Amino acid sequence: MTLKDTILNKKHIHHRIRIEEMAEDFKRRHLSDRERVVERFERMCEKEKPVILDDQQIVMMRTVENLPDCFTAEEWDENRRHHYVHETGYVSNLLPDYESLIHDGLLPLYQKSDVYVQRELDALFSLCDRYQKEAEKMGRMDVAESFSWIPRKGARTLKEAFQFFRILHYAYLLEGGYQIVAGRVDQIFYPYLKKDMEERRLSESEALELVKDFFLSFNIDSDFYDGVQQGDNGQSVVLGGVDKSGKESFNLLSKLCLQASKENRLIDPKINLRVSKETPLEIYELGSYLTKEGLGFPQYLNDDVIIEGLIKKGYALEDARDYAVAACWEIIIPKKGFEVVNIGACSFPKVLEDVLHSKRKAETFDELMIQVKNQIEIECSQIISQYQQVYFVPAPLMEASLDIQYRNFGIHGTGCSTAVDSLWALKQLVYDEKQFSIDEIIEITDHNFEGYPDLLHRLRYELPKMGQNHSGCDDIACTLLKWFCESLKGKKNEWGGIFRAGTGTAMFYLDHANEIGASCDGRKKGEPFSANYSPSLYAKIHGPLSIIESFTKPDVCDAMNGGPLTLEFSSSMFADPQSIRKTALFVKAFVQKGGHQLQCNSVNLNDLKEAQHHPERFRHLIVRIWGWSAYFVELDKDFQDHVIARQEYAL
Fold this sequence. Notes:
Elements lengths: L2 H6 L14 H6 L4 H15 L25 H10 L1 E2 L12 H7 L2 H6 L2 H24 L2 H9 L8 H17 L10 H14 L5 H14 L18 E5 L11 H13 L5 E6 L5 H12 L6 E4 H10 L4 H5 L2 E2 L5 E2 L7 E8 H9 L8 H21 L4 E2 L4 H5 L8 E6 L1 H17 L5 H9 L6 H10 L8 H18 L10 E4 L5 H7 L29 H8 L13 E6 L8 H14 L4 E7 L1 H9 L8 E3 L4 E3 L5 H9 L2 E2 L2
Parallel strand pairs: 1-8, 2-3, 3-4, 7-9, 9-10, 11-12, 11-15
Antiparallel strand pairs: 4-12, 5-6, 13-14
Helix pairs in contact: 3-7, 7-8, 9-10, 9-11, 10-12, 11-12, 12-13, 13-25, 16-17, 16-19, 17-22, 19-22, 26-27
C-alpha cells in the first residue's frame, strides 16, 4: 500500500491516543494564560509517539488526537464577559517567518527568547531527538540524518527544508493556533531546490516526488485541525506572483507544486495562484489542468488589483508585493501581520430588510438608495463597536516568529447579488411600473410569497440579475460596494489598525440567510445566499462571460480583504480538447478586466446527487465550499445542498 493509500484509507490512525484534560488542573494551580499554553505544549510533546510510515520522506504526525483546552468552560464565560473573544480565542490565519527560521535554524531564536519560548523549543527538540532515534532503530538513516541537523540548525537541502516546515507547522498548531497557513512555498523553498539540482542531489523527477510527499504530509492528521467542517483547516499555499522587487517569480518549484497537487488529488494543501496582466498564458493553462481534476483549486489572485489595494490601505510596497492569503482568501502579509481578517460581516440583504421595515418610506428609488447607504453606515458602526478588549490566548512560539507591523481587521460583505437583485426588483415593480407599493411588497415577502406564485416566478427567473451584464443591476452593485468600503474608512480598531472591506461570505451565506425572511429577488425564507462574490443561485445566466462583465465593474481594489467570484463548470466541458486553453483564456480575461479573485470549479451534478444517496461509492469526491475544498460525503447536508444548487457553466 502506498503512503497516499495509507492516508486516504486512514490505515495510520491506530497509532493515535488520547491525553487527559488539563484545564481543571491549570485552574486549581492558578496558572497564568501563558504558563498554561507552555505546559500543555510540553505535555503534548512528551506524550507524542514518533511514527514513521513506510516510504514516508517527510515525517512527524500527531498521534495524540485531542488537544485539551487550557481553560474551563466557566473561565471562558468569565473571559467573554470582559473581552471580545474571536472564534475559539486562539490565534488563527497567521503566517510566521518560515523562511528565516528554516534558513537559520531554531537555536538563534532560542538564544534571544524568553523562558516560555525556550521551554517550548526544548520540548520540540526532545520530540525531534526521539524521531531521530526511531529512524535509526528502523534503519531509516535518511530521516535520522535530517533530524541530526534540523531543527536546531538551518536546512541544507530541499528535503531538510520541507521537514523543517513540517516541524514548525506541527508546533504552531500544538500551541492551539489553527488555520496557520503555509504562504509562498515556491519562494521559500526554491533556493534549496536550485542548490540541490546544481549539486546533483536531485533531478527534476526526484524533486517532483519529494514535493508530492511534502504535500501528502499536509493530509496525514488534518482531521484534527479546527474548522467549520473537515477540510476547513487553513492549509493554504500561494504560488507565483511578483517578488518584493516587482519581478515575476513563478519558477520550477511553482510548476512542480501544481503538478504534485494534480497527481496527489487530495484536498490539501489548497493552491492559490498569483497572476497579473503580464502572466503568460502557459501559467494559466497549468492552473486550468488542476481545475480539470475537480479539486476546487487553484484560486486565482490578481496582483494588479491586490497590490494596489494594499498600498492604498497603507501597506509598504515591498510588503504588498509579498502578500499571501489566509485560510480562505483574505489577504495577509507574511511574518509582519497579526491581523484578524475575518472578525465580522455585514449582510447587505439584512440592511435592505431593515430599511424596508423601518418607518421611513421612500417616495423615490433614489430616496430608498440613500436610506440603504445610511443603514450600511449604521450596520458597520454597530459591527465594529463590538470589537473592544479583544483577547487571544498567548502563543509564545508564534509571537516570537513574527515581526508585527500590521494589526488590521477584515469585515466581509455578504449577500451582494441578493441585495442588488432585490433593489433592482423594487426599482422596477414599485417605482417604475408601480405594480406594487412598498407596503405590499413587505407584506408579500413577510408571508414568503404565499399566494403569489406568478410574482415569485417573475422575481426569481425573469427580472434582470447581477451576472447578466445588465447595466442597471451592475450600477447598483458598484454603488453598494462603494458605500460599504466608505463606511469603514477612517475607522480604527483598538490596536490602531484599520478595518478592511471584503467581498467574501465564509459560512455567512447560510447563517446570514437564516437571519432574515424572504427577499425581493424571489429568494424564499431559509434559502441561502450565493457563496462569496457570485450570482444568485437562482439567476438565469446564459454563460460565464456575462458574469465576469458584471463582477468586474465594481471597484474591488478598495474591497481587497478578499472574496472570490466563484463559478462551477460542468466536468463534461473538459472533454473538449480545447477546454484547457479556453479555461485559461477565460481566467486571463477576468484578470485583464480587473477582477481581484476567481475560483473555478469542475463539478458533475449527477455524481453529487448520487453521492448523497451512496456516500460509500464517492468517499474521495472533492468539492469547493467557500474558501476551502472538502470531501463531499464528509460535509453536512446544508453544505452539500448548496454545492448542488450552484449553476454549472460551460465555455
